[in-house]
Amino acid sequence: MLDDWSNGNIEDVFRNINMDNQIFRQKFLLHIKGLKIYQQKQLANTYDSHTNSTPLIQRCFKGDIDVVKWCLHHCISNVNHCRIGGASPLFMACQEGHAEVVHILINNKAEVNKCNNKEISPLFIACQKEHTEVVQMLTKNKRDINKCNDKNVSHLDIVYYYGHTVVVQMLVNNKADINKCRKTGESPILIACYKVYTEIVELLLKHKADCNIKWRGITPLNIARQENHTNIVHLLQKQL
Known about the structure:
This protein is an all-alpha fold. The protein has a domain at 1-111: Serine Threonine Protein Phosphatase 5, Tetratricopeptide repeat, CATH 1.25.40. Helices cover 53% and strands 0% of the residues. The chain has helices at 2-6, 10-14, 22-33, 37-44, 55-62, 65-74, 89-96, 99-107, 122-128, 132-139, 155-162, 165-173, 188-194, 198-206, 220-226, 230-237. The model has no long low-confidence stretch (mean pLDDT 92).
């Protein structure tokens, strides 16, 4: 496996079925730590010849804290290195919800706003996957709370779409723009009304969401009536 690693077959090494075994991983890491320091640094700084991935990216994806710490110790410069597609170590950890790894990376100066090639940020992917602990961690650090991806979809927009109420509350508490419309014109509250996310509608109304923003001439109240969402109609009528 070390020969494959040295030859740039990083993903093959860390996708090896044996790496799913904790005892094997511990013995493997112990063996690596027994190498000379310059050899360890070379391994930590090796890039996959096909994807440009690194050992750090691979283990952030898996949440392997011990190897993540080893990688950072021997090659801190890779903390913001991205594989093909633009995914950084932090992005991979956020995607998979590995909160402790996220904490370690942030403490080692990972760029919390670093997006992949589709302009998807670590916060965006954490919101989409409903990794609440990771979202909370990211919102406490420097981040662009209203940033959109390449399709003009914001962090709030994605959680409205999936109905992640707790994440919506976190973002609203951090001053996300609750009236920011999608590229196609739908407002957050209109989407929540259409999808019958009653708790999210209540939350948005509590924070003074604009119920008069129209999409193709249709208001949130119009869409609630059209879809016969009685409870939501009552909530909206109270705002009139």
